[in-house]
């Protein structure tokens, strides 16, 4: 089956879009010389240069690592999602900024346990762990990587997820705080073979699957309106497409309880074959402040496709078997 939208993505100005399309959807060998050259284009692309623009002579970004969305924490997370080449020593300074913050005493004091549950925004440690693994900035000898994985496993709530709600009456996990830990621990298990991380990731999937990724268990209504809108980047926010991406990465997309979410995603496909970004969590105007992004991710539209959203949507639809094969139009 040929698909015109694939040709559009193959002609994208973004090497990351072209690389991920060919690696994740067209299933070309990422280790081939041609694909490695394409990945090197990501390293020097205008988007990556903009993301790293604030680095000083020492390779640091002189803001708090969590400064949204331009601090070291978020820059590393963006590079990981872009498919930036692994083992780049020039990123070690950003890695040290992030880990010095997360493993420091001041941050440790902010982690609280109430009524037997650790009330922690686990998406933070999870994004850090995912970035370390995806960018290959740590190995099995690195205690920092394993400490992050250990914390996530330790902090899991009885229902399989995580939550930072300090209200002692809160006993259910948060979709926002649980998806990225699932993603990070599933990757940790694949990279290291750690069966503990795999078990925790499997338990976390039930939090989402028993709610069909966006519905309440009580009456099947939509949990939150934002859950059924498409976004990119998601940062720490949850939506149904991000949920499907993580289910595909972790190997759970074949569960029939993903069906409603896949139906919903297919219903959002535009006449040109692409998918829109219906809402965004970033702004590009003005000077850096909370919610500021150094780069634009395609904006929002009800009529025009967003390349990043389309890339993720085609990935999950292909992985689910709903698009059996894709090829550029002749």
Can you give a write-up of this model?
There is one protein chain. Helix content is about 45%, strand content about 5%. The longest helix has 18 residues, at about 175-190. The protein is built from 14 helices and four strands. The strands form two sheets. It has a two-stranded parallel sheet with strand order 1-4. A two-stranded antiparallel sheet has the order 2-3. The chain has two domains: about 1-45 and about 215-235 and about 245-330, no CATH class; about 60-210, no CATH class.
Task: Offer a quick outline of the entry.
The protein folds into two domains: 1-44 and 216-235 and 245-330, no CATH class; 59-209, no CATH class.
List keywords for this structure.
single chain; mainly alpha; 47% helix
How many structural domains are formed by the residues? 2
Q: What radius of gyration results from the CA coordinates?
A: 19 Å
The number of helices is: 14
In order across it, which strands form the biggest sheet?
A: 1-4
Silhouette: globular
- Overall average pLDDT: 95
Low-confidence stretches: none
- Head-to-tail CA distance between termini: 10 Å
Measured as a percent range, the helix fraction is: 40-55%
Q: Assess the beta-strand content as a share of residues.
A: under 5%
Helices, strands, pairings?
Elements: E1 2-3, H1 4-10, H2 15-25, H3 33-43, H4 46-51, H5 72-82, H6 92-102, H7 105-109, E2 112-114, E3 117-119, H8 122-134, H9 143-155, H10 175-192, H11 195-209, H12 240-250, H13 259-267, H14 307-319, E4 327-328
Parallel strand pairs: 1-4
Antiparallel strand pairs: 2-3
């Amino acid at each position: 089956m040929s698909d015109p939208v694939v040709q559009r993505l193959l002609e994208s100005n973004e090497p990351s879009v072209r690389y991920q399309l060919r690696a994740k959807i067209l299933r070309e060998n990422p280790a081939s010389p041609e694909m490695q050259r394409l990945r090197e284009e990501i390293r020097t692309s205008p988007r990556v240069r903009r993301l790293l623009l604030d680095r000083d002579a020492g390779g640091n970004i002189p803001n708090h690592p969590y400064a949204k969305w331009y601090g070291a924490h978020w820059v590393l997370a963006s590079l990981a999602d872009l498919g930036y080449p692994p083992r780049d020593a020039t990123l070690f300074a950003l890695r040290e900024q992030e880990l010095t913050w997360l493993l420091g005493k001041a941050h440790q004091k902010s982690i609280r346990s109430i009524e037997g549950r650790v009330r922690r925004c686990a998406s933070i440690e999870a994004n850090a762990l995912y970035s370390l693994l995806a960018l290959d900035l740590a190995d099995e000898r690195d205690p920092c990587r394993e400490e992050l994985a250990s914390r996530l496993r330790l902090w899991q709530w009885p229902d399989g997820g995580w939550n930072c709600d300090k209200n002692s009456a809160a006993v259910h996990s948060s979709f926002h705080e649980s998806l990225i830990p699932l993603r990070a621990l599933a990757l940790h298990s694949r990279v290291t073979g750690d069966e503990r991380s795999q078990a925790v990731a499997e338990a976390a999937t039930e939090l989402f699957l028993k709610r069909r990724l966006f519905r309440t268990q009580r009456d099947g209504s939509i949990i939150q309106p934002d859950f059924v809108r498409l976004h990119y980047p998601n940062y720490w926010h949850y939506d149904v497409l991000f949920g499907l991406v993580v289910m595909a990465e972790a190997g759970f997309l074949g569960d029939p309880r993903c069906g409603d979410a896949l139906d919903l995603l297919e219903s959002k496909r535009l006449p040109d074959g692409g998918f829109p970004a219906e809402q965004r969590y970033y702004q590009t105007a003005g000077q850096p402040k909370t919610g500021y992004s150094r780069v634009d991710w395609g904006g929002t539209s009800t009529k025009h496709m967003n390349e990043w959203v389309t890339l993720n949507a085609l990935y999950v639809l292909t992985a689910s078997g709903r698009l059996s094969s894709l090829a550029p139009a002749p």
